[in-house]
Amino acid sequence: RDRVEDIPGTALAEGLTWDWETFPEYLDLLDRQGTVINTAVMIGHTPLRLYVLGGDATERSATTDEIAQMRALVREAVEAGALGFATSKSNTHVGYGGKPVPSRLAETAEILEIARALRDAGRGIVQATVGAGLLFEEFGAITEATGGKMSWTALLAGTGPGIPEWMLAETAKLRKQGFEVYPQVSCRPLMFEYSMAEPFPFESMRLFASVSGASDREGKMRVYADPAWRREFAEQMAAGKGGVLGLAWARTEISWFPEDPALEGRNVAELAAELGVEPTELVIDLALQSGLAARFRVAALNYDEAEVEPLLTDPHTIIGLSDAGAHASQLCDACFSTHLLSRWVRERKALTLEQAVRKLTSEPAEVFGLTDRGVLAVGRPADVVVFDPATVGATPLRRVADQPAGQERLVSDAVGIDAVIVNGVLIRRDGTDVLDPSGPLPGRLLRGGSAS
Fold it and tell me: What pTM was computed for the model?
């Protein structure tokens, strides 16, 4: 396997200790090695399918016996400490060789049967990424099967006229029926930085199956050089069929072009018009000239704050979609918390400081079942962030190469943070790490949502 989403396989191979097999063994590993911050884990449908079905996981539906085995493994995982079960049917989730990730091959009956493991275990939440065959009707069936809560991603502005409002209304209907369903919304524009060497934003297009299936960079370049392929790419993008990036060239800029740095920061649509070429031609030409090193940055979704605000302030949505490290070199929304406090509290005043702090702390803790976290109270662990409301915020993104095997990632630095304390231990002060990484680490594994 060459990568998981945007996480290179070389980084995984060098950076992880692979001396475990089962989910309980994985949790035991986390307990042994320790963490700087607290950690809670869900069991994912894709690795579960790969474990049970092997190579067939990307090819077919599961049999009755295989589904029963997956249900038993999920129950085992939840009883060992997993928060719940996560699945996806998103057409943007494409795996090795351009094939759908294994969870996308699952029929609704499989998802329902596996989810019943949470009822068996007596607790747990389902997390889902929407897609064909996994939407509101299925959400109702899943929450009925588990008897618990469900959170889904992603409720984003820019997905189409009226779509976010419709999704909110459908969620409200489920809640009126007694189903605890929580959409996750992002408080930041969904900014992708990509190269045509790893064109994740386009991989949901069937046209890109030949790109994903190419064995090396040279193979991808041969695809991009094909006049027929380029013509089809231009036609599909002009027709708005480019996945989340359909008709998005006006929101795309050149972020890195080593052959001519003067082009960096230029808008793709504007530059293409100046040169008298299609935007797709410009992007592919720049990619080929740079050996696919050129990078482009685009506001894919959530770019209109007037559309984002009602999603953010709805009483039944929760803040999410940082994407953690899944797209390490393509996007970084790990700074969503400081962005929420600076942009939506201090500048736009869409939320009070108290509302925003609750959305970052006790609200997600309640939804995901973190029973001993989320509030400051006597007898609770001292997990504290001390910040200045007048200055808290995040710096622009910058690229570093500090992952295992020298792999790159995007980072944003926090400002206005005086101190970060984990379980009573000071780990950062005035933007500087003060914890000795060679000593005991203060983070705890929250088995079943609790370290106790």
Answer: 0.88
Residue 376's nearest CA partner among 312, 322, 421, 319 is 421
CB distance 8 to 2 below 8 Å: yes
pLDDT tens-digit map of 42-97? 999 999 999 999 999 999 999 999 999 999 999 999 999 999 999 999 887 877 77
pLDDT digit string (tens) for 171-200? 999 999 999 999 999 999 988 888 999 888
Query: Over the range 307-324, which residues count as b (16 or more CB within 10 Å of their CB) and which as e?
Result: bbbebbebeebbbbbbbe
